[in-house]
Amino acid sequence: MLTMKFAAMEFKFGSWKAYQINMQTNHLVSLIQLSDEVFGDTTIDEAMQRKPDLVRAKKGIGNYINRNSHRFFNSIVIAVVGGEPEFTSVVLDKESPGKNEIPDGTFGMLSFSGTQDYYALDGQHRLVGIKEVLDVDSALHKQKPRGFEKEVLPVILVVQPDDVDEEEFRRRYRRLFGNLNRNQKPTTEVTNIIMDEDNIFNILTRRLIMQHPFFKGVGDNIVVKTNEGGKNITNTENFFTSIETLNAMNSILLTSHKRSTGQAFVKIPGTDKKEDGPEMREITTVDDSGNDKSFPWKLGKTGAPTGDFNKFTLTLRQDEVILDALQEELFTYWDAIIETLPFLTNEPMKMRELSEDPYKGKYIPSTKNNETVQQNGLFRPIMQIVFCRIVRNLLDSDFQDDSSYTKAKIKNSLKVLKEIDWSLFSPPFRGLVFHNQVDDENNWIMRGGEDREKAQKIAIDVLDWMLGDASLDENTIQKYKNRYKTLTQPRGLSNSEVDEIWKVLSKHRRSIHSS
Questions:
Q1: To which H or E segment does residue 328 belong?
Q2: What does the alpha-carbon distance between residue 45 and residue 64 come to, in Å, rounded to a whole number?
Q3: Which residue of 227, 450, 462, 482 is surrounded by the most CB atoms within 10 Å?
Q4: How high is the mean pLDDT of the chain?
Q5: Nearest to 266 by CA among 337, 320, 208
């Protein structure tokens, strides 16, 4: 290999001497290797670093490079084996700016003679992604950004001291690699929502908080919890919801049945009165082959995006026209929800107050509790996810596509929500998502642990049955009862107790459909 020279800055930190270099990506891939390419197969004790996830690095980071004009990497840390590259300092002349502030020997030229081996100590996944994009035999190379091979990355080179043997050298490098990775803290969900500029839902959640009349805080009236204290809301916090839960609710509201099947269109605002119908735009992204594609919108049980939708659609920013249209749709949903259930604007702490159990500890309530203030479930994150699932199901049953919604039509679909007793003391929530303690019947808590999602799912299924037109056959009802009784806390219910609760729910369902 020919000698290659790079402008560099020498520095020392702790016991390490290192150089800061600016290196073009084509030089990076020709000079820098992975550790197993340098050392071959090693024992655990000899290993220099963990093996990279090549699939994740090639496709994940490769696609990030190809699909983001705003791509950015922090410094790749590389190590050198087989001696120290030659550093020739450049002395600033007397007229150079900063001559008196910059020590002699700081700047210079670093020569890579080809007699040393260099490998990525921190940043191996980034290196693999860059190599994949620049590999002419790779499918990702076809989508390579113009001029990417000339783009420049910061590289930090740490060198092997002359006075250490191979065993000590490997020990020091393992320690350095461990420190670099162990002390890195992954970004939190809150940080991602606040900072991300590609994910549709993160962008729209921020817009909702900043612009929507209900969600934007004024003075001390902050509706959305945006700190790192966790998504749950305590009894002493006067928030309606947390930013993580709001983001999940928005994801659920916008993921219509049509979009979940891959028919992802959005109505352009102000086009409802066009003779040939409103203007619709398809929400597409670029797949691994560089083709525009509309991926099915898929969410997990908690409302978190999954699969190719999360991998592709949410990692490339949509056009502002589409973002503005989705914002209009989301704001319309929330306007309709709040106008349908105006008690949502009440003071959250009061709506979560633990008032006296109206049923005096009995598992089988005999009447409907009409008190909207008493432990209202819609002010609890666990129930807010359930609620938005119900809202989305009601909308999907009434709207055939995503072009026909208006606030008036949405409110008409959601008016049945007024008939639900949202108190957590009432069925189907009592004992399911909200229960008292075995040793203290007056101490009521929210459902937690591994059964939380199961409890949410049965609550959704029961509410869908109560609000929907379709009747369930006896086998399905029995399955619902079996799921319900095994999940109730602080103890499972007997068959007769569940039958009695079902009579209450059935009576309530009949009253909803007769009104």
A1: helix 320-340
A2: 34
A3: 462
A4: 84
A5: 320
Q: What's the CA gap between 489 and 440, in Å, rounded?
A: 12
Q: How far apart (Å, rounded) are the C-alpha atoms in residues 84 and 115?
A: 10
User: Position 235: which residue type?
Assistant: N
Higher local confidence (pLDDT), 488 or 453: 453
The predicted structure's pLDDT at residue 206: 94
Which of the two residues, 117 and 419, has the higher pLDDT score? 419
- Domain boundaries in the chain? 4-184, 190-514
Q: CA 314, CA 71: separation in Å to the nearest integer?
A: 15
Q: 301-323 pLDDT, tens per residue?
A: 889 999 999 988 998 889 999 99
What is the arithmetic mean of pLDDT over 48-56?
56
Read off the amino acid at residue 322: I
- Whether 39 shows a pLDDT value over 80: the answer reads no
| φ, ψ (nearest 5 deg) of residue 258 | -60, -45
Q: DSSP 3-state assignment of 269?
A: coil
CA distances from 426 to 358, 369, 375, 429, 510 (A): 9, 7, 10, 6, 17
Q: Cα dist. 237→180, 221, 347 in Å?
A: 37, 11, 11
In angstroms, the first-to-last Cα distance of the chain is 84
User: What 8-state DSSP symbol labels residue 72?
Assistant: -
pLDDT attached to residue 12: 86
284 φ, ψ to 5°? -120, 170
The Cα 480–Cα 484 span in angstroms is 6
Residue 301 has what DSSP assignment? T
Q: Is the pTM of this model over 0.85?
A: no
Q: How confident is the model at residue 420 (pLDDT cuts 50, 70, 90)?
A: very high
Q: If you write DSSP's letter for every residue of 98-135 in order, what string do you get?
A: TTTTSPTTSEEEEEE-SSSEEEEEE-HHHHHHHHHHH-
Pairwise CA distance, residues 423 & 428, whole Å: 10
Task: Give one DSSP letter per residue of 345-357, joined into a string.
Answer: GS-HHHHT-----
Instruction: Give me the residue label for tokens 């992975």.
Output: 34
